[in-house]
Amino acid sequence: MSEENRYLVPGLARGLQLLTCFSRNEPQLTGAELARRLDLPRASVFRLLQTLEQTGYVERVPDSASYRLAIGVLRLGFEYLASMELTEMGRPIIEQLRTDTGYSAHLVVRDGQHVVFVSKAAGANAQFHSIQVGARLPAHATVLGRLLLSGLSMAELATLYPEEPLAQYTPRTPTTLAELKSLIDADRERGYAISQGGYETGITTVAAPVFNDRHEVVAAISITVPAQQIPAERTAILVPQVMQAAANLSQLLSHIPHVSGSAAPRKENV
């Protein structure tokens, strides 16, 4: 045995190799298919799948013998993007957004029940909004969090938030999963979100989701306006700017052409 292989953990290596068998073209695989690809006994693959399922990295497809990647893998992806690729690619985009709008721009990701600010471009109004990189906010109480939660089903939301009522920060904070899901779905359909004094009084947040090449929400881009409300004519200018910045980052992350669509801002009721 070579010196470099002396400390190799075979089971861990096989588990990681198993995860790489899943792809965009083959998101679901059975234990038998994985055993053939890995050239391992089915019993060994079954133990690997059980371990990965219990640790949250794969999950059984309902009413099927197949497995697929689970949220644990996505969580690792979040951490990687937050520390490297996402912030490096996103920084010049939010700096340009800050220049175009004059307002502080942010890039955020989700960590469990919280949104985490991973990059910031301070605008001329920075004194009105002092949130810093690394700051965490409750996902359910912010439009940023609602955008980042938009890929979760009702069952997944219930797992993430096992207890009700949800913590209330303002009269506009949803306190039940049904309320939260309704707001999430509305924001997702709209393609952007606006919070006018929703979590923190005196400011307005305009945000749009960032997608990867599988159209999964991996981040959100936002600007902060130092006003409780902004006029409709100003909203009509700011919303497309934020959406375009998010689309630009989505294109970089997916490495595929992005077809931008026009979306007229609608009045936000929350």
UniProtKB/TrEMBL annotation:
SUPFAM superfamilies assigned to the protein according to its UniProt record, in alphabetical order: GAF domain-like, Winged helix' DNA-binding domain
InterPro entries listed in its UniProt record: GAF-like_dom_sf, HTH_MetabolicPath_Reg, Tscrpt_reg_IclR_C, Tscrpt_reg_IclR_N, WH-like_DNA-bd_sf, WH_DNA-bd_sf
Database matches in PROSITE patterns: HTH_ICLR (PS51077), ICLR_ED (PS51078)
Domain named HTH iclR-type: residues: 9-71
Pfam families registered for this protein in UniProt: HTH_IclR (PF09339), IclR_C (PF01614)
Keywords: DNA-binding, Transcription, Transcription regulation
Domain IclR-ED span(s) in chain numbering: 72-255
GO biological process: negative regulation of DNA-templated transcription
GO MF: DNA binding; DNA-binding transcription factor activity
Gene3D superfamilies per the UniProt record, alphabetical: 3.30.450.40, Winged helix-like DNA-binding domain superfamily/Winged helix DNA-binding domain (1.10.10.10)
Protein name: IclR family transcriptional regulator
Organism listed in the record: Ramlibacter aurantiacus
